[in-house]
Amino acid sequence: MAVDYTVIVVYLAGMLAMGWWGMRRARSKSEFLVAGRRLGPAMYSGTMAAIVLGGASTIGGVGLGYQYGLSGAWMVFTIGLGLLALSVFFSARIARLKVYTVSEMLDLRYGGRAGVISGVVMWAYTLMLAVTSTIAYATIFDVLFDMNRTVAIILGGSIVVAYSTLGGMWSITLTDMVQFVVKTVGVLLLLLPIAVVKAGGFSEMKAKLPTAYFDPLGIGGETIFTYVLIYTFGMLIGQDIWQRVFTARSDRTAKWGGTVAGTYCLVYALAGAVIGTAAKVLYPKLGSPDDAFATIVKDELPIGVRGLVLAAALAAVMSTSSGALIACATVANNDIWSRLRGAVRRDGEEHDEVRGNRAFILIMGVGVIGTAIALNNVVEALTVAYNLLVGGLLVPILGGLLWKRGTVQGALASVIVGGLAVIGLMAGYGILANEPVYYGLLASLAAYVAVSLATRPTDETVLAAWRERLAGRSPELASEPVPAHQ
């Protein structure tokens, strides 16, 4: 295992080095939070794919393949579909807004007053996303070093917090690009073909497994529909995803770079399901489907390759964790703390805000690590977060982009009614039930339409400023400071 350990240690040291290098570039708020909005197509595609394909997509995706066969690809597949929809239909407009958070977009569209409530919902989602990603370190480090759960979470979480705090989005972008390459090589180019060969090829896999394992819809229509509601729509509105869109150099980069990343997700989804199916042939009686990834890596891969593939799993977890962490800190600082203290931003404060955002990443990071250590049921926590996100924010965000008649009162009613409906329905049906997100989304939509139609239309000056912003012609954008090193 010495070679495998060396690969992992070198990888982790490289992540910290990237953080230190990124610190030298993060000299303004724009550089720190959205990498100066300067990412080109290649780097944008790689980092976008890295953030959406986390531990759940890698370890969980293989586990679903182990349990259901090829139809286990649907969870990650719907993530890819969501990213494609975001990139093709919305990303260009989102990138032209030149904001930092989803709540700022809502304030621009509706004329203010929607930010704090939506910010709290978004903060809860990004916090739970960061927590669940951080917990995944325990699984990986247990396979590598037989490490205590708490120590593993502290070690993995501290590395992510360190490089994220040092350089913000620049550090995260650089590390995500490395993580994208490591995942591509480790999972797609090494683990996938080796797993299929070890299982005897596709003909042997078909001979040894039930026919249902090769049914594209074997996982069930209702489950697929729920995945679409939660993950496809979740991709359209999550702060962690939007913050990556804000890093694009142009709206064209956001559109086409995101399309490439979404297509990559579809391939990754199928690869995970095939690896899981192969693991079912090799290990038909594992205690848990989520053990499939670690087991096939540990038992079937040669020395060195094993270390690289485990580094790929670590890369998947770190990319999602760091993206969720900076999103959580950005929302906490810009949408909640700054609004509650009544802070007034001025153009000259751009550079002064780097220290504040860095402090918030550190504070949120410590909170994430502590919560990850204390939390037991990760699936339930993540389900609560996604249900609140989709049930509370999907309608006012898409409504603001697509329906001129939507008002701030309708948006607030939608967030409150949808959020409370989801919470009440989860209490009644159970956290993991499908009904809360179904009915919560319908309640949110009904409240948005009814209240919007019953209140005065949004002021025309607000809508005019919104249209200018969407077109990229807002005069405020021209005055955004440009770092001296550009």
Automatic annotation (TrEMBL):
Alphabetized Pfam families for the sequence: SSF (PF00474)
One Gene Ontology cellular component: plasma membrane
Transmembrane regions: 6-23, 44-66, 72-95, 116-140, 152-173, 180-197, 217-238, 259-283, 303-332, 359-378, 384-403, 410-431, 437-455
Location(s), subcellular: Membrane
Domain of life assignment: Bacteria
GO function terms (MF aspect): transmembrane transporter activity
The keyword Cytoplasm belongs to this UniProt entry's keyword annotation: no
Name of this protein: Sodium:solute symporter
The species this protein was found in: Streptomyces actinomycinicus
